[in-house]
Amino acid sequence: MEALQMTDTRPPFAGLNGQLPEILFGTLPTPCYILDEAALRCNGEMLAGIAARTGCKILLAQKAFSNYNLYPVLAPYLAGTEASGLYEARLGAEKMPGKEVHVFCAAYSDTEFSELLHYAKHIVFNSPGQLAKFGPVAREAGKSIGLRINPECSTQEGHAIYDPCAPGSRLGTTRTQWDANMTPELIALLDGLHFHTLCEQDADALEVTLHALGERFGDILPRMKWLNFGGGHHITRPGYDIPRLERCIRLAQQAWDVQVYLEPGEACALNAGYLATRVLDILQNGDTHIAILDASAACHMPDVLEMPYQPPLYGAETTGSSHCFRLGGPTCLAGDVIGDYSFPASLKENDLLLFGDMAIYTICKNNTFNGMPLPSIFVLREDGQLDCLRTFGYEDFKSRLGQ
Ligand SMILES: *Cc1c(COP(=O)(O)O)cnc(C)c1O
């Protein structure tokens, strides 16, 4: 069983079934995203296996992936959705009907909060102040109430903007803040605790975090009904240590008698989409060969610049030295560069390039900077059929700017 899980992950381009991108996607308008239904299901099955074996509940963190037309593919494998605020909570309630809706936001506004009560069943607050302000209303409305805590345990270097445990962090309540602010009345409002401290990490980092959590909040946890482990668990990545994750879940269940939740975003839709783009121009500056694409890092894959990272590209390598090209977008931003790749042959105008792992933090995060068109969205169905989900035009750019 476990050997099977470990090999169950799909590499970024498995959906092509050995066919060339030009054969499969050559007729599509570029740039366009192509969501891979089979890959989503594969991820869903892995997550459902963990839930079934341990009794934990797994939620889709919608901020990573919110293409709701495909929620029906994931829904059978998940307990529900997690939201970053009102709109995502509403989307989860509408598009994964009958499933749990959880929400965490660093601070809720009055208007947002009253509407949120229609959609979310589990509401997580960031601070004792927000808990004091909204907790009694939430309790009255029959909600399950949580507080995000900060175990002050940084397990990542390199991605500082993704470290909520950094000194001075605004995310989560530290034990010092807890001791200074959590009155018995506030504690009595709580059903659960929530932490979110990982980013693309394996279960060893979770293990370390749970240890820190026990040291700082071990006296509180047995009084809670649930404990949410947040996201950042890179569960569906090849090589992720699933048995260790399951040991962590069981440890928390046994030590504190809590219902464990996980709310991965990335892991739900990892390697479940592509971005197809064509070469608009080839140029050379000194020794640097450059290809300008009709897709932009800044607009269509913003995490390439924000995180930053270099996405996989079909048929190309990030390390090789032959036929090297720097790939960039058509925008004015000097840094609108996706990265340097090496190819088996020289690139030329109109070549089709296919980036992998483009379902997460892309479509839900893109923008029209420079008036760039938004890529169309297609779906590669499990039977191989390609369906168009949406196209965009000038009105989509214009309508956000006025009327
Ligand atoms: C971002 C986030 C997630 C999902 O994180 P992934 O890295 O996509 O798994 C889950 N919960 C909270 C509170 C988050 O902020």
Summarize the structure.
The protein is of the alpha/beta class. The protein has helices at residues 2-6, 21-25, 37-54, 71-74, 86-95, 110-116, 128-140, 175-181, 184-189, 203-217, 242-256, 266-269, 297-300, 303-306, 394-398; strands at residues 32-36, 57-61, 80-83, 100-104, 122-125, 144-148, 192-194, 226-228, 259-262, 273-285, 288-293, 324-328, 337-342, 352-355, 376-380, 386-390. The N and C termini lie far apart (57 Å).
Describe this structure in words.
- This protein is α/β, with parallel strands linked by helices and 403 residues long.
- Helices cover 30% and strands 20% of the residues.
- It has helices at 2-6, 21-25, 37-54, 71-74, 86-95, 110-116, 128-140, 175-181, 184-189, 203-217, 242-256, 266-269, 297-300, 303-306, 394-398, and strands at residues 32-36, 57-61, 80-83, 100-104, 122-125, 144-148, 192-194, 226-228, 259-262, 273-285, 288-293, 324-328, 337-342, 352-355, 376-380, 386-390.
- The strands form two sheets. Strands 1, 10, 11, 12, 13, 14, 15 and 16 form an eight-stranded mixed beta sheet that branches.
- Strand 5 (122-125), helix 7 (128-140) and strand 6 form a beta-alpha-beta unit.
- Mean pLDDT is 96; it is low at 1-7.
- The protein binds pyridoxal-5'-phosphate (PLP).
